[in-house]
Design a protein that fits this description.
Order of helices and strands: HEHHEEHHEHEEHHEHEHHEHEEH
Number of strands: 11
Low-confidence stretches: none
Number of domains: 2
Distance between the termini: 55 Å
Largest sheet: 6 strands, parallel
CATH architecture of the largest domain: 3-Layer(aba) Sandwich
Helix content: 25-40%
Mean pLDDT: 92
CATH superfamily of the largest domain: Glycogen Phosphorylase B
CATH class of the largest domain: Alpha Beta
Strand order of the largest sheet: 3-2-1-4-5-6
Oligomer: single chain
Structural class: alpha/beta
Shape: elongated
Strand content: 15-25%
Length: 353
């Protein structure tokens, strides 16, 4: 059923692109505090996090009204952000794609921005039918639906954050990429919870390394034995460690370390992110947690699967970082020796800072 729905969406979008002439730019737009801009970013947590530097820049420079259309998988990333006036949750169904004009009319939106680095059929269709003065996006195969686009810079040479920040030029905004940062704001109760749980487990003021065990797929799990051996190496230093796990894989985590060394897993991303904020160092497979670490300038050692793609890895931005990258489809053949030979010097440099 889902494949049929996707096929119908693509067919309808292709029809729209075929029968409609390319939308012409209205001219040099002027933006101010009176502007009302709707940014669209669906999909996952990491996808949302990497867009926040652009949102922060637009709000800071224009002080305009900013709305974000997100979905149920990532809307909470934007919720407490002071740069965002309203987060609107999109329900991915064919009928709701037509709801874009209700959103625009109710809030008097003058500009819609596609934050997606690749082509989203759902978002492309919404923007194609949107009744709004300005439609902005990166130059892609769906460029015909926009009033104005900016070059999508080489994904093999430029970080995803840099590619997204290109959209700032459509608002005539200066962006210093050396100073931009991801933004996420955990709730105060989550921060208090993290403080309490870590205080129970870790001696005060002791260097704390977090070991995140899981990512979004089995392909990025390094294996029980490898993590056990990693802990043995960490225990040779005068530092503490804490493991991060998901609820559904807590039994695997308990097979790696005693429960007292495991941060309480939660369905709430906010609780998880608050725990990450308390670290001095992070070891993790490629997942959205690397971007949370970058907010607090926490050094990250990552394990990355870069299979069948030339795109630059989504590393933590403007943060001290080292990693192992495999071009195989999983981390299965990434040896402990390969990792530890690179990890230990990086850890020691940061312990001695």
């Amino acid at each position: 059923m889902k494949k049929l729905e996707q096929f119908l969406k693509r067919t309808l979008l292709n029809l729209l692109l075929f029968i409609n002439p390319k939308i012409k730019s209205i001219g040099n737009e002027s933006f101010s505090s009176e502007s009302k801009i709707l940014f669209i970013r669906l999909n996952r947590i990491g996808d949302a996090l990497v867009t926040t530097p652009l949102l922060d820049t637009v709000k800071k420079e224009l002080n305009c009204s900013i709305y974000v259309l997100a979905d149920r998988k990532n809307y909470f990333i934007f919720e407490n952000n002071p740069s965002i006036d309203e987060v609107i949750i999109f329900d991915k169904s064919v009928n709701n794609m037509f709801g874009i004009n209700k959103i625009i009319k109710a809030r008097k939106i003058d500009t819609v921005v596609d934050l997606h680095d690749d082509v989203s059929t759902t978002v492309s269709f919404m923007i194609a039918i949107a009744k709004v003065r300005n439609k902005f996006g990166l130059k892609k195969s769906n460029s015909k639906i926009f009033t104005k686009t900016v070059e999508r810079i080489d994904s093999s040479k430029h970080h995803i954050i840099e590619r997204t920040l290109q959209l700032g030029s459509l608002f005539n905004l200066p962006v210093d990429k050396n100073y931009v940062s991801i933004h996420y704001y955990p709730k105060m109760e989550s921060i208090k919870f993290a403080d309490s749980e870590i205080e129970k487990r870790i001696p005060k003021n002791k260097f704390l390394i977090g070991i995140n065990l899981f990512a979004g797929s089995e392909a990025r799990f390094w294996g029980v034995d490898n993590f056990k051996k990693l802990i043995v190496q960490v225990e040779k230093y005068e530092i503490s460690y804490i493991l991060f796990s998901t609820q559904d894989k807590l039994d695997i985590a308990k097979n790696i370390a005693e429960e007292k060394f495991i941060y309480p897993p939660s369905k709430e991303f906010d609780t998880f992110a608050a725990g990450i904020s308390k670290l001095n160092f992070l070891f993790t497979p490629d997942t959205s947690v690397v971007h949370i670490a970058s907010i607090y300038k926490i050094p990250v050692f990552g394990l990355y699967v870069k299979y069948n793609t030339q795109d630059m890895i989504w590393s933590p931005y403007n943060t001290e970082f080292d990693c192992i990258v495999t071009e195989e489809p999983t981390l299965k053949n990434v040896s402990f020796e390969e990792v530890i030979n690179k990890f230990i010097p990086f850890l020691e440099r940061n312990i001695n800072v």
